[in-house]
Amino acid sequence: MKKINIKIVLAQCVSLIFLINGIKRLILSSQAEKYKCLIDYFQNNESNCWKQFQSQYKTMANFIVFDAYFALYGFIIGIILIGVINWQNKKSPIYITSVLFIVLIPFATGILKKGIINNTFNTFGGLFSNDFGVKNLIGGIFFTLIGLLISWKSAKWNTSTTHNSGLD
């Protein structure tokens, strides 16, 4: 059985978390007006701004459900990108399989959406702008590029020169 380098798997897990958050923020930036309306509605229950949008989301509840789909799209795109990078660098498929299962658990339970991780990602875009759309656009581009860079660098690591902890 092939040996697996735990450092590469952990680096690619971090990369996937950055990719998920980056891609989701890029999608959020394209839906900024709807999110502003949703936030306004939760702060002031009498907001009627939702009626001005002519969109495929008939209600706010439908829009909130699609938020979960946006995160799922980020997860799928991230797995595909890491898989392609690993394939180009002739890494074993066990790496992407390991990353998939390790990140799937916190992703499916919602840990990535709550708490310290999400708050850290939220504050980065706020350093550059107070506008919801611009914050998410800047954060989305930055986190997607960081995720791709980490994935690319980890795939370039030579497994023969590092100490492997194997699955014998």
Description:
By secondary structure, the protein is mainly alpha-helical. Helix content is 71%, strand content 0%. The chain contains six helices and no strands. The longest helix is centred in the middle third of the chain and has 29 residues, at 60-88. It is elongated. The mean pLDDT is 77.
Top keywords for this entry?
168 residues; mainly alpha; 6 helices; 71% helix; elongated
Q: Terminal Cα separation, in Å?
A: 6 Å
Q: Please describe the biggest sheet, giving its number of strands, its sense, and whether it closes into a barrel.
A: none
Low-confidence stretches: none
Question: What is the tally of helical segments?
Answer: 6
Percentage of β-strand residues = under 5%
Number of strands: 0
List the helices and strands and how they pair.
Blueprint: H1 6-30, H2 32-43, H3 60-88, H4 93-109, H5 115-126, H6 132-156
Question: Nutshell version of this structure?
Answer:
This protein has six helices and no strands. The protein is an all-alpha fold and 168 residues long.
